[in-house]
Amino acid sequence: SASPCARRIKRLEQEGVISGYRAIVSRDTVGIAMTVFVEVSLNNHQASSIDEFEHAVVEMDEVISCHVVSGAYDYLL
């Protein structure tokens, strides 16, 4: 039978408390030499343009995170 800990983990997954797991890739092992931050300004702030940009970023394997920011830029990748 499942251990009490395994049952709790399963319950937390089913309730959405645990939303997933991730792998942390060793940058040195795969030869990634640097981290780059990119500031992005959109020319058009209509909802359709924002959605198009965000969907495009999701498809880019190189982008690790995308944040909406305030100030001179719209996004920080």
UniProtKB/TrEMBL annotation:
Key words of the record: DNA-binding, Transcription, Transcription regulation
The keyword Transcription regulation is annotated on this UniProt entry: yes
GO cellular component terms listed in the entry, alphabetical order: cytosol
Residues of the HTH asnC-type domain: 1-33
Pfam families membership: AsnC_trans_reg, HTH_24
MF term (GO), any: sequence-specific DNA binding
GO biological process: response to amino acid
Record has Transcription as a keyword: yes
InterPro entries: AsnC-type_HTH_dom (IPR000485), Dimeric_a/b-barrel (IPR011008), Tscrpt_reg_AsnC-like (IPR019888), Tscrpt_reg_AsnC/Lrp_C (IPR019887), WH-like_DNA-bd_sf (IPR036388), WH_DNA-bd_sf (IPR036390)
Protein name: AsnC family transcriptional regulator
